[in-house]
Amino acid sequence: MDASFGVKLPGLVPSYVPSLRQIPAFVAELERIGFDDVMDGEHILYAAEMDHPGGSGNFHHGRVEQQSDRSDTLVMFAAIAARTTRIKMFSGILLAAAHSFAVLARQAATLDVISGGRFVLGVGGGWNAAEFEQMGIPPRERAARTEETIRACQELWSPGLSSFQGRWTEFKDVICEPAPTTPGGVPVWWGGNARSKPTARRVATLGEGWLAREAADYDEVAESAEAIRAACEKYGRDPASVGIRVSLTATADWDSATSADDLIERAIERARRLTGVGVTHFTVPLSYYGIDLTDLARLLEALRAA
Fold first, then answer.
1. What angle do CA 275, 281, 282 make, to 5 degrees?
2. Rama region for 188: left / alpha / beta (φ>0; ψ in -120 to 50; rest)
3. What is the Cα–Cα distance from 233 to 238, expressed in whole angstroms?
């Protein structure tokens, strides 16, 4: 199968490594196996209980026992970059609207430089509106704020003096260092509902690709891919230049699979079907597969051979 295959880091760290400190070494093992990239998502503030829509997982937090160990995505990626040489690092997704545009632009560019161009900035508004409320950001503004933050970052990644004026962001004749290694700046991928025109437009005009939500089914992916193709044609872009990334998960498969072999077979079936609608990148979410490195290597080999 001519596609890119990555792994999403587990929310429950003890399932794969004893603590956050061992994640870079674990990713080095994923690189050795042959995966193309590693993905990590972001929450900044957690409630005591968070129920992910679409059945993608429930999180329970407490100070006595913390059951979901999440770290800062960009800091962890910097540590991973120092331990690896080939595997890419993909934020999926970063809540860009909650970040300072200038700090985010500098952090992303620095990560691009120290990794040798192996960082991809996936952004979106996330599903947890309450998280933005707690940070003083009106949830209804998060999509527009995300777009403005990325536009400001892309201006700061451009050569020469940078100037920008938006609704929430304004600067004039400044330079942000370091300059990214990647020509044109850090690659940006967009999350969100691409069946909606604003998201499809952002993908077509401001990004390298689209990130489907983790629980997206076939119809949602197919309709989103078609909307992105239409937006590309509208804005004069070759649709083939846009990547589409989908998680190799489906709730019914998690519930009914009885073995690693069963999971591998179902993942191959899903990947084959989704390739037909233009999916270029696939993610294996470790939290739901729960298989060891040996079976992950078998899964990757089977996917590449499919």
1. 85
2. beta
3. 7
